Amino acid sequence: MSILSRYSLSGGIFIVATLGYLQIGEAPSLFRQLSLIHHWQSQQFSEVMFLYASLPRLSLAIIVGGVLGLVGSLLQQLTQNYLLSPMTLGASSGAWLGLVCLSVFLPSLVPLYGHWFAMGGALLSTALVIFIAGRQGLGGLPVILSGLAINLLLGAIATAIVMTHDQYAKNLFIWGAGDLTQSDWSWVTWLLPKLWPMPLLLYFAPRPLSLLRLGEQAAGARGLSLIPTMVTLIGFAIWMLSCAITAVGLIAFIGLLAPNIVRSLGARTARDQLCFSVLIGALLLLITDMIALIASGYTTNMIPSGTAAALIGAPALIWFSRGKLGAKDQQSLSLPKGAVSLHKHLPLALICLLLSILFVALFVAPSLHGWQLSISNLHTWQLRWPRVFAAVAGGAAMAMAGVILQRLIRNPLASPDILGMSAGATFALVITTIFTGASIFEVGSLVAFIGSSAVLALLLLLGRKHQFSPAMMVLIGIALAALIDALIAFVLAKGSDEVYSILGWLSGTTYRVAPSQVILLLVSVTLLGLLSLSLSRWLTLISAGDDIAKARGLNISQARLILLIIVALLCALVTAVIGPLAFVGLLAPHMAVMLGAKKAAPQLLLACIIGALLMLVSDWLGRVLLYPVQMPAGTIASILGGSYLILLLSRSGHPPNQSQ
């Protein structure tokens, strides 16, 4: 398709979409709309809504969509990584954390300095991602993994701040969902002057971007100063992104999809890709917002544009990831060196440590009169034992699921949270509560199991084609996590009375766990753990390779199916009772290997103890750190586990590997 026909066709679709957008709802006739725009005098309520709600919303959709498309194209051309975007680079989560901090601690400064704090958070998170991935990792999977780790870590920190300062953060929920609703032209007039770098980038950026395609050395030989150029271009991109996020909130996937669509339609030169990405980005957000508006007419709640973008963008991310991964993205790297073999007294020492911390968690806690030891207080025991043993069972279950997944897929990044299995269970639970009106604490494990199983089926279907490569598995997890995040933001933006209880549950809380649920969880996890130990030979053979497993007489398909059902059951049980737990299923198996548990059975046992320890410590810290304010155990575990993953990636430069 020629450039002229491509721009003409896209421009025609853009005009049709714009006209269709303005006809949604009880809008004036097209002729009357033209008259209103010309004379700017309204007489009826529908005309006022057209001038001061529909038109500014349309304008923001076009402007913000164009900015997201330009920023996405710029980042992808700078790194030659077609799966990079403000979302996968971590910039969006950094901007969110910056605005959360300002809204909570200095709310009076939000109108004047909100965009500066958003930019500061975005720059910090982007710098961290680039530092972790390294210059050599910007073109492949390492930068995607680093962005995932930063997103999860900063998201956990932001959630912790919101949970402990809920009275200051209520207005953030709608913003976090990505909302284009307007009541006047103030945000349009605020945003437009701040996008002054946009024409400069369109004019000056194509030359350095074209030189970068030749390689760093060739570009340097032609006079390009690589580091100053990258810093300048990324700085301008983050500035525009931060201003757009401040105006409308978090809208994912537009910056990822627009440049990929542009290339698929034949754009080849740097200038063509930048300019066409602006048009396609504006068109994408316009159509997405149109879908959100139409869908809102059939529901009792307004659907935010960010939710609609995620519903469209998550499947698109998986689609565009096909064939986008280079050979280096299929490689893995080693875990930090640990013990050669497991010390015979180490398991016993860890069990003693677990029992000691269990005693502290049950009977030692701060009070208004200082620290107290409450051994004989029956009321204290009744309050604490359900949450303490729920944390122990949940940590052990997620650790066990992580070990099984990592050995099954032979991918050390395979954990229930990173691969999206916990997100699948959460998605099913939240969707069910939306349509049935039931409490999320009462929906049940069966619904969560269906969600986890659906994700498992998707992983097997898409992963088999790519030999369960680390890149493909992680990208599926990112897409699913973004989808569930958008759904969660939509639920929270409704502003119902259960918002904070849902937010607490989504953070992995043990607050409202009933004794009957804990007993069910303990018994189920114990039985599934014994079953997993009895099948440890399967894990050993499968992790050694399909050929070896077949040679030893193992029915690989049957064994893999049974083990995956165990993983889905573990995820469903934990998610239904406690909520989604991040990083425990990644951290515990790694620590077990580094402590010398190379074989399947010892790794399962040691990982269970470590997972239980991690969640137990997280639950206790959540109770005592900010007493009397309490933080969810899952949030503490996410911060600890996210920090570990960042450390691991920064030391390695690639995803870790486990060959045993």
Can you put this structure into words, describing what you see?
This protein has 660 residues and is an all-alpha fold. 71% of the residues lie in helices and 2% in strands. It has 28 helices and 4 strands. The strands form 2 sheets. It has a two-stranded parallel sheet with strand order 1-4. Strands 2-3 form a two-stranded antiparallel ribbon. α27 packs across α28. The chain is globular and about 80 Å long.
Terminus-to-terminus distance: 51 Å
Number of helices: 28
Global mean pLDDT: 80
Rg, alpha carbons: 26 Å
Write the layout of secondary structure elements.
Elements: H1 3-21, H2 30-39, H3 45-79, H4 91-105, H5 110-133, H6 141-164, H7 172-176, H8 186-191, H9 197-204, H10 206-212, H11 216-221, H12 226-248, H13 254-264, H14 270-296, H15 305-321, E1 333-334, H16 346-363, E2 364-367, E3 370-373, H17 378-409, H18 421-436, H19 445-465, H20 470-493, H21 499-506, H22 515-534, H23 536-544, H24 546-551, H25 556-577, H26 584-594, H27 600-624, H28 633-652, E4 656-657
Parallel strand pairs: 1-4
Antiparallel strand pairs: 2-3
